[in-house]
């Protein structure tokens, strides 16, 4: 695996509290072996999101940060995305477009009653 290619950790099924520590160890190990600084967590198989999922992801992010890296989520359920935003946790999502200015030459629509600037 190339040092720039992030490793992928697939999270499936409901994860028990006993499994969380092992997954945190997996994240730290993947960061050390790849040297990429990012572990992609495929969360598509976690099932319906709940506070247990939020707790798991927060702990994985904390373990990654302590190891000098971070995690990126792949295939998150829209409900998981909303739940993370509700509790105030921001995660990088794979395939999410960057927020930036529109390209040059793109004009906004103007109403006829708008005064000229």
TrEMBL record:
SUPFAM superfamilies: SpoIIaa-like (SSF52091)
Pfam families, per the entry: STAS_2 (PF13466)
Compositional bias (Acidic residues): 108-117
Ranges where the MlaB-like STAS domain occurs: 9-89
Annotated spans, Disordered: 96-117
InterPro entries in the record: MlaB-like_STAS, STAS_dom_sf
Gene3D superfamilies, A to Z: STAS domain
The name this protein goes by in its record: MlaB-like STAS domain-containing protein
